[in-house]
Amino acid sequence: MLDVIRTLSLAMILTAFVAVESRSLRRALAAYMAQALLMVGVIAGFATIHPPLAIWALTAFATKFALISWVLWREIRRGGDEEVAPRVGPLVSAIVISVLAVACYRFVHVNVAVLAPTPMAEAEPFRTNVAVALTLLAIGVYAIVTRRDALKVVLGVCLMENGAHLSLVSLATTMRETVLIGIVTDVVVAVVLLLYLIRAIAERLGTRDSSQLALLKG
């Protein structure tokens, strides 16, 4: 099971790449949905070791895969499938994300004893999961900084959140499930509020281009 968890975790990097780089928002959303299922699979895998985590797996399926995907799909249908052109070209962007992935993976594997000074963190799949978690956080920040389409910015936030949850489930598998479920719920509320703001801005400006927000001044 630990090998399965490691494989599911590594696959999350590929889905993050597609979610950020795809110019089709429907394809980007499909990649996020695949990542959400992978996250649920990782949590479910850990639930075989710590059974109470099964509650978190069910909650993650309902929120990450079902609810967040649904509200994102509604906004894509409303505003169109084509992403507003990003600030960085596709070739440069692909190279940057690849470098981020390799750098984060190597950094964690070399410094895991400092980043997470526990014997468990130095074993697999925990060490790989921490590396993937840092990679997702980095890719999420990169998406927020370089994407002009507000929906892609929201996807960047979702990628960061998945990275945070991957590190939590890997290093704090005995954390109280009520706390974990509360964290998930907070993220859902944040995404819904962001999408509400995006809709209001799009109705005012006729675009989801976040670089046009300066037009709202005055």
Q: Which helices and strands occur, and which strands form pairs?
A:
Blueprint lengths: L1 H20 L3 H23 L5 H27 L10 H26 L10 H21 L3 H22 L5 H29 L13
Helix pairs in contact: 1-2, 1-5, 1-6, 2-3, 2-6, 3-7, 4-5, 5-6, 6-7
What amount of the residues lies in strands?
under 5%
Report the end-to-end length measured between terminal Cα atoms.
Answer: 57 Å
Oligomer: single chain
How many DSSP-defined strands?
0
Structural class: mainly alpha
Q: Taking all residues together, what is the mean pLDDT? A: 81
Describe the structure.
The chain is mostly helical. The protein has one domain. The protein is built from seven helices and no strands. Helix 5 runs antiparallel to helix 6. The protein starts with a helix and ends in a 13-residue tail after the last helix. The mean pLDDT is 81.
List keywords for this structure.
218 residues, mainly alpha, 0% strand
Overview in brief:
With 218 residues, this protein is mainly α. It has helices at 2-21, 25-47, 53-79, 90-115, 126-146, 150-171, 177-205.
